[in-house]
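Researcher: Sequence recovery benchmark, item below. Answer with residues only.
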């Protein structure tokens, strides 16, 4: 065999050894992949609106309308100005829980007197994110209300009434910053006024602050 040809097996052996050693050498020199942080990892590092584990507070103010039939002997105003203070949290991007205090306004009665209705509610919230614009929401729950009448309204309808009723709501949230949202909501609170079940609608706007 030619002297050069006798060197070929040695060269091949050296090449094979280098090829086998290369992956181990690269594995030692390559940086280790980052480990996932311990604990809950559902929340994305850059949070979008509607992510899970999101808590928030908010306030809104607007117009209310009472579904109350007023007899001519004691006419009354059916509209007022009310507001909501609320706080909540989301279990995931599409489901949350919200508690709220609502003041449904103080419509005046003709000839003197005033009605005041307020209460506390808790609702399950369904959330539908709308891209980067914001989200739609729908709420269903219960509302414990207390209504008080004064003056001619009290003598006609009774001084007070209280109890639980159905609470429904829907709204739109528009992103202003990553942690602030403009929210417009419609809410319907069912309660007892004038000795019968009735409802009060509220259309309100305000801000929601997310943490």
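Model:
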């Amino acid at each position: 065999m030619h002297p050069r040809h006798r060197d070929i097996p040695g060269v091949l052996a050296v090449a094979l050894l280098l090829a086998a050693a290369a992956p181990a050498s690269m594995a030692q020199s390559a940086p280790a992949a980052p480990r996932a942080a311990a604990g809950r990892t559902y929340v994305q590092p850059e949070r979008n609106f509607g992510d899970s584990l999101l808590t928030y507070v908010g306030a809104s103010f607007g117009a209310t309308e009472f579904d109350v039939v007023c007899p001519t002997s004691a006419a009354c105003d059916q509209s007022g100005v009310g507001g909501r203070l609320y706080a909540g949290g989301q279990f995931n991007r599409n489901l949350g829980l919200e508690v709220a205090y609502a003041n449904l306004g103080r419509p005046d009665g003709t000839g003197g007197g005033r009605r005041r209705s307020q209460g506390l509610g808790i609702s399950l919230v369904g959330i539908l994110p709308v891209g980067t614009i914001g989200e739609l929401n729908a709420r269903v729950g219960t509302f414990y209300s207390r209504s008080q009448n004064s003056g001619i309204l009290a003598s006609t309808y009774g001084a007070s009434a209280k109890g639980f009723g159905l609470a429904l709501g829907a709204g739109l949230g528009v992103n202003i910053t990553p942690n602030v949202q403009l929210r417009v909501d419609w809410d319907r609170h069912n309660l007892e006024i004038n000795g019968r079940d009735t409802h009060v609608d509220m259309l309100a706007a305000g801000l929601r602050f997310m943490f």
